[in-house]
Amino acid sequence: MDFADALDAALAARAETTGELPPGEQLALTLSQVRSVLPTADNLGATQDDRDLYHLIDTVSDGVRSAFPGSRCQAGCSACCHYPVSLFNVAPAEWKAIARHIETTWDRERLLGFVERFWREHGPALFKMRVLGFLVTLPLPIIPRESAIPPACPFLEDDRCAVYPVRPAHCRSFGHFTVHYWWRRTPFIYGCLEQIARLREALARPGQAPLPSLNPFDVKLWGLAPGKGKLLALWTARTWPRRTLERLSGTARGGEAAKAGPPR
Ligand code: SF4
Ligand code: SF4
Known about the structure:
Order of helices and strands: HHHHHHHEEHEEHHHH
Bound molecules: iron/sulfur cluster
Structural class: mainly alpha
Strand order of the largest sheet: 1-2
Radius of gyration: 20 Å
Distance between the termini: 54 Å
Oligomer: single chain
């Protein structure tokens, strides 16, 4: 039995005898369990069980929020949808899930409104996005300076995520993990500045559980979803180019009640 198995067994035994574990120990147990099933994960959001990488990331993120009661990441905080999550590389398979979600749940009126707003707000910033997209080529994110940031994520509507059930891995993990780059000696906390400050404060307390590393999840993500990633805005521009507005407004005016569907 290796150390991780021994730790797992000890924590599970303690949970059995005490009924409930303190949040830090619960996080260690969750992590250990997630790590043991991570190699067999084979889908992104399709099964919502231990084979689903999104489910595993969500499970760990929930564990971090419980183990760090001072965490600023709570339902309703959308600051990172303005910056910088929307700038990160989204894998082709992740984008397909978003496009499929829109195709099957939005009607044409809604898609038309979205595409109009996208080209009005993001259209003028697309050149900048393309330059940023070219720079952000590593599977793990490079966080650009705030001054470089064009508008918020196109899917942020009334301060809520319009594609929440199928949001990409970056959106699920931001604010809950550390990332280790080979050129840095120490990992850094992957989150907004406010969340980083809160987590650092908590980590300085004695007995606080460490944060999980995003690296193994990221390796798994790009194994499951190979291909060239793009920023969300660039995927959007490619799937619904400006010329689709004419087609969509024609069908919307014609009162077609069919589901939306991306242009072919
Ligand atoms: S990372 Fe920061 S901005 Fe994003 S949800 Fe957490 S606290 Fe809010
Ligand atoms: S996809 Fe949703 S959660 Fe992710 S950045 Fe966009 S609005 Fe925010």
